[in-house]
Amino acid sequence: MTTKEYRRLHAEWYERVSAREDHTKEIEFLAKCIKASGEPVLELGSGTGRVLVPLLERGFDIFGIDTSEDMTARCQAVCRAKGLQAKLYQQSMIDFSLPSKFGTVLLTSGGLGLFVSDQDIRSTFGRVMAHLEPGGLFLYEFEPVPVEVNPSWNTGNWAGDWLAEPDGLVIAWRKRMKYDAATHVWDSLFVVEKFLNGRLVESEANERTGRFFTVKEALEFGKAAGFVDLKATHWLTEEPPNKDSKVVTARCHKPLGE
Ligand SMILES: C[S@@+](CC[C@H](N)C(=O)[O-])C[C@H]1O[C@@H](n2cnc3c(N)ncnc32)[C@H](O)[C@@H]1O
Q1: 138: closest CA among 19, 34, 20?
Q2: Were both Cys, which of 108, 123, 143, 203 would link to 193 (CB 3.0–4.6 Å)?
Q3: To the nearest 10°, the Cα dihedral for 106, 109, 6, 8?
Q4: Quick one: pLDDT at residue 11?
Q5: Distance from the CA of 46 to the center of ligand 1, in angstroms?
Q6: What separation in angstroms does the CA of 175 have from each of 5, 49, 207?
Q7: How far is the CA of 51 from the centre of ligand 1 (A)?
Q8: Largest distance between two CA atoms of the chain
Q9: In this predicted structure, what is the pLDDT of residue 1?
Q10: CA 59/CA 74 separation, integer angstroms
Q11: Can you tell me whether residue 220 is helix, strand or coil?
């Protein structure tokens, strides 16, 4: 499979930007969900370990799968440096196969939006069902269909930012989005540039097609796959989604006795 994102510079950008944010509230929310549903845990698209590493540090038995070699290598390096035992597999969530069953499966960071085709989602949910213990939790997040289209989309405008490190490293990024309000599918071009002491040393163009979902649509995928006790909440809360929800968390369970 040719990947058009989450390669070398994208992975570095992801790790550096993540390190500048406080994820404690998110990790505590996920830890609470795991304690209620059980271990081991599987994170789909575990990336650089933004979520997986702090959960490992809290003593949870957690596995990760990801298609990106560069993201996974960074996660492995962090685990090594911290003396943590990483159980990482380079597999796609669409057709993964692992020798374990899980009490909890996580798909965070709006990960449902990695998919555009219903078929890929059905396949992923089928693999999750096959790997969950009866009663196990599947938590998946998605970005809901926006109430208002962002004024910078479809205009040709770039949105971006940069970070500067004390050692003279600057990473700048910019993004353009094209959004189809009829299908809720978007295309983006995400350009990352790395400068050292003012000189461009590396650049990378990442292409991505993604999707927003209505809450009903997102829950329907869980229901169709045979999950029960489905609910959707505003990100990191027990409140229902509202018009300001940028991310929605869906939770559902594998039926007991299956
Ligand atoms: C936005 S990052 C999230 C990483 C991590 N979950 C976090 O919250 O920081 C999405 C990750 O999903 C991975 N990914 C994309 N498609 C995938 C697939 N089909 N199977 C497994 N991983 C995938 C990417 O390589 C990337 O590391």
Answers
A1: 34
A2: 203
A3: -100
A4: 98
A5: 6
A6: 13, 24, 10
A7: 11
A8: 61
A9: 46
A10: 20
A11: helix
Rounded-to-integer distance, Cα 253 and Cα 223, Å: 10
For residues 154 and 47, what is the distance between their CA atoms, to the nearest angstrom?
A: 29
H/E element holding 222? helix 215-224
Quick check: 88 and 62 in contact, CB under 8 A?
Answer: no
- The CA-CA-CA angle for residues 86, 88, 94, to 5°, reads 155
197: left (phi over 0), alpha (psi -120 to 50) or beta: left
DSSP class of residue 98 equals -
What atom of ligand 1 comes closest to residue 5's alpha carbon?
25
Q: How far is the CA of 45 from the centre of ligand 1 (A)?
A: 3
Mean pLDDT of 233-256: 97
Under a CB-based contact definition with an 8 Å cutoff, are residues 131 and 103 in contact? Answer: no
Q: Residue 102: enclosing H or E segment and its boundaries? A: strand 102-107
pLDDT in tens, 88-106: 999 999 999 999 999 999 9
Q: What string of DSSP letters covers 34-88? A: HHHH-SSEEEET-TTSTTHHHHHHTT--EEEE-S-HHHHHHHHHHHHHHT---EE
Exposure string for 180-209, b = 16+ CB within 10 A, e = fewer = eeeebbbebebbbbbbeeeeeeeebebebb
Sheet bearing 228-234, strands edge to edge: 87-89, 62-65, 41-44, 102-107, 132-142, 248-253, 228-234
Tokens of 116: 């555009």
> Residue 257: pLDDT above 90?
no
- Ligand 1 pocket mutation, candidates 17, 29, 46, criterion most atoms within 8 A of CB: 46
- Please answer whether residues 62 and 55 qualify as being in contact, where contact means their C-beta atoms are separated by less than 8 angstroms: yes
